């Protein structure tokens, strides 16, 4: 049924890169923030500036993770140890919170300027699920998830939203831990083995696998099908339209 096994009764979707065309916006915002920081660090220490890589660094360290975790993971990969700071740190401060705030300011500005477009295949898939009466949830690390859903015009297609704000409120560990997906399945009244996870991020796919979900679907938007499978995807497709019966593959 719709490209997943018949025992699947609930459908849990990541946001950026799965439902909306905002993954590239996030990647660009991470690069803008980190390159500004790394350039200043290199000038200060008299070392060579090595920019943030939009493919390797983004996929490995930040994609799918909560914002603060992504900042920590990338800094650790470069051997940079910064103080944690606090949420009140001005954007761009030399702290984990300050850099994370700068990234968030950039992505919000880019979304305001560029708008938010959903993937047509994802919208069609969601409408098919709604017609069949199958429950749907969004599970995103982003604190801006609901704003993005509204901007894309798809906020009315989900019964449950577990985003960065919910994770912070309920003390849920971020992806690749399975906690946020497990919380969404529980809210829909469905055990994990009867729920499907839809992810484009390696950390998100790992989250679905760690949670014992019935099916993990990887969305290959950037040519990383092998990596998605290696991290636990049972099915890999280029677009959710590929799962709709009768649609061309």
Automatic annotation (TrEMBL):
Residues 80-99 are annotated as: Disordered. It comes from the Bacteria. GO terms for molecular function: hydrolase activity. Keywords: Carbohydrate metabolism, Hydrolase, Isomerase, Magnesium, Metal-binding, Phosphoprotein. The keyword tRNA-binding does not apply. Its cofactor is Mg(2+). Its EC number is 5.4.2.6. Belongs to the HAD-like hydrolase superfamily. CbbY/CbbZ/Gph/YieH family. This is Beta-phosphoglucomutase. It comes from Kitasatospora cinereorecta.
């Amino acid at each position: 049924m719709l490209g997943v096994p018949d025992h699947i009764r609930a459908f849990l979707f990541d946001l950026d890169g799965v439902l909306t065309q905002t993954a590239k916006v996030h990647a660009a915002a991470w690069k803008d923030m980190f390159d500004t920081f790394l350039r200043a660090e290199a000038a200060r220490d008299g070392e060579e500036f090595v920019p943030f890589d939009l493919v390797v660094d983004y996929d490995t360290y930040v994609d799918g993770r909560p914002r603060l975790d992504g900042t920590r993971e990338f800094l650790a990969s470069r051997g940079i140890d910064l103080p944690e700071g606090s949420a009140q740190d001005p954007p761009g401060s030399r702290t984990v919170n300050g850099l994370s705030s700068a990234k968030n300011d950039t992505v919000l500005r880019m979304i305001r300027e560029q708008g938010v477009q959903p993937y047509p295949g994802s919208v069609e898939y969601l409408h098919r699920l709604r017609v069949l009466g199958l429950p749907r949830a969004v599970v995103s690390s982003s604190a801006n998830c609901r704003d993005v859903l509204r901007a894309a015009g798809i906020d009315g297609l989900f019964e449950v939203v577990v985003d960065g704000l919910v994770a912070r409120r309920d003390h849920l560990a971020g992806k690749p831990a399975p906690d946020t997906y497990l919380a969404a399945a529980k809210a829909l009244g469905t055990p994990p083995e009867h729920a499907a996870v839809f992810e484009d991020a390696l950390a998100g796919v790992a989250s679905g696998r760690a949670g014992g979900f019935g099916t993990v679907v990887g969305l290959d938007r950037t040519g990383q099908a092998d990596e998605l499978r290696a991290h636990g995807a049972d099915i890999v497709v280029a677009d959710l339209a590929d799962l709709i019966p009768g649609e061309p593959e």
